[in-house]
Amino acid sequence: MRNVLILSCISYVSLAATVCAESSHLTMEDLNALTNHGRWTELLDRGDQVRPSDRTKVWQERVTQAGTNQIEAYGNLSSEVINGDAPVYKSVSAYEKKYPFLTQDKKYLQAKAKAAQGLTRTCVARPGANCWLTIEALTEGVSEYPAGAAKEIAQYMKNNFRPSESLKYWIAAVKENKEVCKESAFIQALANTLSQDPKSPAVGDAKTTLKACLPAIEPEMVDQLRSAKPGDNFTVNSCALLLDHGKVTLLKKSKCQ
Questions:
Q1: Cβ contacts of residue 81 below 8 Å, gap of 6+?
Q2: Is the pLDDT higher at 256 or at 100?
Q3: What is the pLDDT confidence band of residue 13, given thresholds at 50, 70 and 90?
Q4: What value does the mean pLDDT take over residues 195-213?
Q5: Using only C-alpha atoms, what is the Rg of the chain?
Q6: CA distance 182 to 151
Q7: Hey, how many other C-beta atoms are within 10 angstroms of the C-beta on 242?
Q8: Are 174 and 186 in contact (CB under 8 A)?
Q9: CA proximity to 164, closest of 134, 133, 202, 204
């Protein structure tokens, strides 16, 4: 079997010596050197070259530290870099696929949420910047956001992508502040999602959120029902909740029964 030799050479002015070895594997010493000098991309690219028998808790910590620092840097990138020849969203997804434990780390997920907020503000200031794929990658697996971030992201996604695709961010914003239930952009995103196939996973989340917000937005939902047809997706997805809340009006009866 032919061995493929990869030149691993880490050289720094501040080091007294140069670590340089021809090997198809990285040692933990190599990984520590990359960590000490902030070479996060290289560490993530080559961290899986450490022998499986050497992938200890310390190895996982080094990789997670690199991933977290890399994500933090993404929040400060310009829209030109984000949409360049090597899109950021591809690297985020690739690293998480290579190192699944990243998405189980609380600090890593917090860094993703904060980076998504920073990127959203950058892209809002640059109309026409196509950032939604990177925002999606940065928010994948995230359930908690910095104060106000979920609403900022939801508004950006609604204005630059599709309203229904913004719903998961609106849901996070509602959890932070129930007053968001009354916002027209949220109601639009909710109605658009409820108009999808009842089997869609997003519809389940929409129905749960509708139940939580219904006391504040029943009139708006009834207006949506008025223009819907009996048996269509919106009617099927919303009728049970609308019938259980408030008065059973003639409109509700004619559309839902």
A1: 88
A2: 100
A3: very low
A4: 90
A5: 24
A6: 13
A7: 22
A8: yes
A9: 202
